[in-house]
Write a structure and sequence with these properties.
The protein has helices at residues 2-5, 8-18, 27-39, 43-55, 62-74, 78-90, 97-110, 113-122. The chain is an all-alpha fold and 123 residues long. The longest helix is centred in the last third of the chain and has 14 residues, at 97-110.
């Protein structure tokens, strides 16, 4: 619910209360928090949450990548979007319409049309 309302601060507060309360932080809870950050245009917070997943060995999914990429794309961080897209491919995580669109929009923002052509030919 917090993700839909873009209430990223509340989402992060709830997330920070989970570990001390012995409530397991999971892919689903982190995806919701990343999505809330995306709606609130807080790409750095989304990036931190995404990075914390790898450090904590919490599985990253297509949804995780899509939400993080959308947060970065929304804030003009096109190079981060392309980095995530490549990382997703290297991790053998299947891309989605959301991740592909974020990558294409990032190419447009960054003015790297050659990369857009490479993305389209790789589909």
């Amino acid at each position: 619910a917090l993700e839909r309302g873009g209430e990223w601060e509340k989402a992060l507060e709830l997330l920070s209360r989970m570990a001390p309360s012995r409530v397991e932080v999971s892919t689903i809870t982190l995806n919701a928090a990343i999505s809330a950050c995306e709606k609130g245009a807080k790409w750095r917070k989304a990036w931190q949450l995404f990075s914390s997943m790898a450090q904590s060995r919490i599985e990253q999914s297509t949804i995780t990548f899509g939400a993080t990429m959308s947060a970065c794309e929304r804030c003009g961080e096109w190079d981060k979007v392309l980095l995530l897209f490549n990382q997703m491919k290297c991790s053998r995580i299947e891309s989605s319409t959301i991740t592909f669109n974020a990558a294409v929009m990032a190419c447009e923002t960054g003015g790297v049309w050659e990369t857009t052509l490479q993305l389209c030919s790789a589909m």
